[in-house]
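re: the backbone from monday

yeah here it is again, tokenized this time
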């Protein structure tokens, strides 16, 4: 069995969560391959260096572009895949969107989000139109569709006509070697020296899209401030939507908390561990998530978590976080205060136990099982012909 995995949808200059996902899953799958199984990774000249050291039986298929040029990348996926993949004798193609022309005997797609429908303003117009045109056909022609939560399953059924038997729920996971409890004092000194934190702080980690609801957190922080003492609010994440970032800074000013908010900006993923360990509470007030991986990252570091009571977040939190109404600053403020006081000890103990249930080894094993199943089914169908 030869499986081709499409890694072209990542921008080498701005690696996304998908990059982190595959750099953890591919090595785990590599360790589990049998002698007659191979992984072939679709990469570009710019992205090739981002995917190295994955172990034996992992090969590379070079495409001209990755997501540094989305239109060219998309065009090459549709026009080059039907030529290149058959030449490499690929049996299973794992990708986000089905090429116009069938490129391999079996197709497995990973639906990571339905944001083209649920959070359209977080997706560029051209990408939004492309996804809305491609999702229905992709769901129809795929042999299997991998999703990461029951919440996403509901969204897929809401927006697409897809055979329920095709859907395979495989949760994402935490890198427990990186995200784990540490010395809070040392980590606080680290973020103080490197990122300008000066006081105990409430933490937000996410790209600054509107649906992530950082404005709701600012309002909640202002409400909670009298009970939070001298704490700061650390906003960690790139301002993808620059107009929204400007609005957030103006809102902090209007709320009278501008001097208490530290706009850290984007940091490498491995740096976020220091913030999780040092923070008094991590708040994730998003309106819509298909999984909410930062929730588990914070929990793995024994950081108390407050998150939304909607979408996939209660599912991911699994009772180890405080849930609040993301539309109600008072609800969020109350949960933040409780997480910093009466609930702190319970949450710091419950978080790591919850996070331990999610491993990349299990994610890789389940993903590989889907590839094997669709391949075996195709072989059985061919033998009956």
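seq for it, each position gets an aa:
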């Amino acid at each position: 069995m030869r499986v081709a995995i499409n890694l072209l949808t990542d921008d080498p200059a701005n690696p996304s969560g998908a990059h982190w996902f595959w750099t953890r899953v591919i090595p785990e799958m590599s360790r589990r391959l049998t002698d007659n199984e191979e992984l072939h990774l679709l990469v570009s000249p710019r992205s090739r260096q981002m995917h190295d050291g994955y172990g034996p039986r992992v090969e590379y298929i070079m495409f001209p572009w990755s997501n540094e040029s989305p239109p060219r990348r998309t065009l090459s996926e549709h026009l080059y895949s039907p030529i290149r993949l058959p030449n490499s004798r690929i049996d299973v193609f794992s990708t986000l969107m089905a090429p116009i022309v069938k490129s391999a005997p079996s197709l497995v797609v990973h639906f990571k989000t339905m944001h083209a429908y649920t959070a359209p303003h977080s997706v560029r117009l051209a990408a939004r139109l492309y996804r809305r045109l491609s999702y229905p056909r992709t769901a129809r022609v795929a042999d299997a569709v991998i999703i990461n939560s029951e919440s996403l399953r509901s969204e897929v059924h809401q927006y697409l006509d897809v055979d329920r038997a095709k859907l395979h729920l495989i949760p994402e996971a935490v890198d427990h070697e990186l995200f784990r409890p540490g010395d809070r004092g040392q980590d606080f000194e680290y973020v103080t020296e490197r990122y300008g934190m000066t006081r105990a702080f409430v933490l937000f980690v996410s790209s600054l899209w509107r649906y992530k609801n950082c404005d709701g957190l600012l309002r909640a922080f202002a409400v909670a401030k009298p009970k939070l003492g001298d704490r700061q609010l650390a906003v960690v994440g790139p301002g993808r939507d620059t107009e929204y970032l400007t609005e957030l800074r103006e809102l902090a000013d209007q709320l009278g908390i501008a001097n208490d908010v530290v706009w850290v900006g984007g940091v490498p993923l491995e740096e976020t561990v220091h913030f999780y360990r040092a923070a008094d509470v991590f708040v994730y007030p998003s309106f819509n998530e298909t999984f909410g991986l930062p929730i588990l990252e914070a929990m793995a570091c024994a950081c108390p978590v407050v998150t939304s009571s909607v979408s996939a977040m209660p599912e991911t939190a699994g009772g180890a976080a405080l849930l609040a109404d993301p539309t109600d600053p008072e609800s969020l403020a109350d949960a933040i205060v409780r997480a910093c006081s009466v609930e702190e000890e319970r949450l710091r103990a419950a978080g790591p136990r919850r996070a331990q249930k999610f491993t990349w080894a299990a994610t890789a094993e389940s993903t590989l099982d889907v590839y094997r199943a669709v391949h075996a089914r195709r072989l059985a169908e061919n033998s009956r012909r």
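The domain at 2-173+360-384 is CATH 3.40.50.2000 (Rossmann fold). The mean pLDDT is 95.
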